[in-house]
Amino acid sequence: MSPKPVAQLELRAPPAVVGIARRLEEHGFEAWAVGGAVRDALIGRPGGDWDLATDATPPEIRRTFRRTVPIGIEHGTVGVLADDSVMYEVTTYRRDVETDGRHAVVRFARTLEEDLARRDFTINAVAWNPVTAELRDPFGGAGDLRGGVLRTVGEPDRRFAEDYLRVLRALRFAGQFELRIEEATRAALERAVAHLDILSPERVREELAKVLVRTRAASITLALYAGTGVVGKLLPELEATRGIEVGEAHDAWTLAIRTVDAVPPSRLRLRLAALLHTVGYPAARGRDLKGGYRYTGHERMGARIADSILRRLRSSNAEIERVVSIIERQSDLFPPDSPDAGIRRWLADVGPGLVNDLFRLRIAKQHALPARRSDRDIVERWHGARRVIRQNPVITLDRLALDGNDLQRAGFEPGPRFGLILRTLLARVIEDPSLNDRATLLAIVREELET
């Protein structure tokens, strides 16, 4: 989306934000809206989080408002709970006094200009007064938005060296807002890539998550990750997929990032699975009988590699389990025209909880291909799976009408054989749900299984 000229825009803040700013000014302080909400409003994307900067100190902010929360008071940030029951962050003007590439030591500043001068990019160094509607833009950020340019505030090498996470932020902003990275900024960014290993895994993971959930066309930023060396530095397993042929004019990397775009941004774990679903291709690649390549077993290899990547990024256990399961099962769909019994067997194997993500990933891969294939067959199979799920089929042992206690009460000697008997009965019930009756199952045991 092309940025709109500032002159054509009327910035509007929530009434509560205007009220907070007015109250600060009535008490003799300055109050300016800063950050992403101002930037987004300037390009016609309202709805961001509104933050305020002020010359009031944290104690003065807390005396000015009745309901406050010291959410980051050591850094000058106080949460103000407004009349709309939303908490807005109000932060004292700050300036950096010491940086190490990961963290900054800050001191309170006296002026808005000092505060804006410490920010990363010009597009984020624009302030707007919610009371007077005055725009302060000492570094030309509004003009850069109009021109579709991303540049640092001040000298690029120094700005990236203050916090190397800004490398990843720059690429995210460039992709999210379709900005061209200014030449000197890009050169400094590429030099800074060598230092990305000092970033904590948590910060890298959080930034990658923002790329995946905040931008529908995440492939733009991910392509910038690859083109600037970020992928090779932080995710070498993905770098290895670049140039790996997978047919139909895509390499494994391009197929992955295009598949990401075909998954809704609201589904972070599925987008992660889409990004990592080809990571096993390099390890699995072998020659077929026709001289081409085959990738037998890439799903299992990819699952192991994805597990390693996500653990390195310190993802949650729940996220790792989900993403790895999707990757490992990505090719496991039941054949077309399968009978209900076949679908039940498949559900028992993969688990109903994975069904929607497996089908969504397969459809996304279809959409990612250069010559988009019809997904009608996949959609019909998906409908079939959902229809069978609605029948509430018995596909797990806990749903079986007979258990080990029933076998004991019927006079059978307990032991390891119980497990085999119950699994055999479950298989029979999956084939014919009408068998799931305690008396019927006991009869099967006595007549067929107990020898």
In whole angstroms, the N-to-C terminal distance is 73 Å
**Structural class by SSE content:** alpha+beta
The CATH homologous superfamily of the domain at 1-152? Beta Polymerase, domain 2
Beta content comes to 5-15%
> What is the tally of beta strands?
13
Unreliable segments (pLDDT under 50, ≥5 consecutive)? Answer: 1-9
In words, what does this structure look like?
- This protein is an alpha+beta fold and 451 residues long.
- Among the domains are: 1-152, Beta Polymerase, domain 2; 334-390, no CATH class; 397-449, no CATH class.
- Helix content is 50%, strand content 10%.
- It is built from 23 helices and 13 strands.
- The protein has a seven-stranded mixed β-sheet.
- A hairpin with a 6-residue loop joins β8 (127-128) and β9 (135-136).
- α7 (165-176) packs across α10, α14 (268-276) crosses α17 (317-329) and α18 packs across α20.
- The protein is elongated and about 90 Å long.
Set down the secondary structure blueprint.
Blueprint: H1 15-26, E1 32-34, H2 36-42, E2 51-54, H3 58-64, E3 68-72, E4 77-81, E5 87-92, E6 94-99, E7 104-108, H4 112-117, E8 127-128, E9 135-136, H5 141-147, E10 149-150, H6 156-162, H7 165-176, E11 180-181, H8 183-192, H9 201-214, H10 218-227, H11 230-234, H12 236-239, H13 252-261, H14 268-276, H15 281-284, E12 286-287, E13 293-294, H16 298-312, H17 317-329, H18 340-350, H19 355-368, H20 376-390, H21 404-409, H22 417-431, H23 438-449
Parallel strand pairs: 2-5, 10-11
Antiparallel strand pairs: 1-2, 1-8, 3-4, 4-5, 6-7, 8-9, 12-13
Helix pairs in contact: 6-8, 7-9, 7-10, 10-13, 13-14, 13-19, 14-17, 16-17, 18-20, 19-20
